[in-house]
Amino acid sequence: MTTYANALTPPGMQGTIQGFVAAIFEIGIAIGSVTGGYLYDQWGGRVMYQIGGLAAAALAVVHFLIQIVCGAEPRKINGTRSIMGKGEIPPEQHKADEEEF
C-alpha cells in the first residue's frame, strides 16, 4: 500500500495519502468484523465461512478481470518502473525487482 501511495501521489502529499489508505484498510477490517459477527450470530460458523469463501472467490474473479482489462502489468518507462501506466517509482526503491526486467 505504501509503494502505491508513494508512486501515485504528488510530492509532499505522501503522508496524507498513506494515512488515508491506512484508514480505508482499517474501515474494511471493521466492516468485515461486524459482518462476520452478524453472520455467525444468525446462522453459525459454518455458514459464515461458506459465505466468506464465496465472497473471496467472487472478489478474486473480479480482481482478475480488472487486471486483464486494465493491463496492470508493471512496465519500465524511462528507467523507472510504472504501475498501471500511472505514477513512477524510482529505480532505487526497487533494486530487488530489477532482475525481473
State mean pLDDT (0 to 100 scale). Answer: 79
Overall tally of structural domains: 2
* Strand residue percentage: 5-15%
Straight-line distance between termini: 22 Å
Tally of DSSP β-strands: 3
Written as H for each helix and E for each strand, in order along the chain, the element string is HHHEEE
* Poorly predicted spans: none
Strands side by side in the biggest sheet: 1-2-3
**Residue share in helix:** 55-70%
Shape designation: flat
Rg from Cα: 18 Å
How many helices does DSSP assign? 3
Summarize the structure.
The chain has 101 residues and is mainly alpha-helical. The protein has helices spanning 2-8, 14-43, 45-70; strands spanning 75-77, 80-83, 86-89.
Description:
- Keywords: Membrane, Transmembrane, Transmembrane helix.
- The protein is mainly α.
- The chain has two domains: 61 residues; 31 residues, no CATH class.
- A three-stranded antiparallel sheet has the order 1-2-3.
- Helix 2 packs antiparallel against helix 3.
